Predict the structure.
Amino acid sequence: MEGLWEEVARLAEVLEAAEIDLDRRLIAREELAEALATSAAETTAVTEAQEQAAPSLAPVPGSTVPPWREGAPVTVLVPDYQRILGVLEQRRSTGHGPLRAKEIAVELGLDATPAKVEGVRSKARRLAECGWLFLEVSGAFSAGRRPVAVPDASSSA
């Protein structure tokens, strides 16, 4: 019987420690939710202020690719993206079809190493996702533009 009472006491200590840990986690979760809500509100306010300010058309190295819109100049893209577009537009103007990432890399004068090809593929995919290029079912890319729906900044999911 004494062994059972010792086991009950040990389990009571384990339960108490677990309850303390649970309380800490709940508090941390509430604080994190508050911090994220505050951060989201601040980000929305900054984004709205930036949208109201005159947009800069100069590309910023390392910046994200803006969605293509009617009348958007290619110069809003950083030079690497402009070169990829240039290769595909030249290809289209000569009546040739789409290119795969490896072929684009070669046209850009890059080594056809996996690292270089994947870098080109990543950039071309980003351009396609933002409407600057078409991504063919075959995985090849071709010149062409299409408007892309920009998610509403005020909606939350």
